[in-house]
Amino acid sequence: MSTNLSDDTITDDRGNLIVVGTTVEYHPDTYEPGQPAHPAGTVTAISDFDADVDDDTGRTFGIPPCVTVTWPNGETEDFTTSDWEHETAYDADGMPFTGAGKGVCEELLAAVVEDGE
Length: 117
Prior knowledge:
globular, three-stranded mixed β-sheet, disordered N terminus, mainly beta, 44% strand, five-stranded antiparallel β-sheet
């Protein structure tokens, strides 16, 4: 896993940026009724896009980046990203290729620090 995600951007579902070092918590919508609050953790790694081949069909499929969070008790947990949209970029010869993308980590909520705090 890398600690940096090239030109891609990951946000929570409220549009707050998630990068290595961001303080995050479970998204409030993921709590079961009566479940105790979970302490905030820190994003310690973000993987790059990957691909694999389905053994049965021989088709390749993409694997989106994961956000790794380290919780205060030292445990780590991976969260898959989704809703990826990529821009089309062009090389020097005018050939298109997949450019920077934007994705969402729906299970996490980035802590937003107010000015002056």
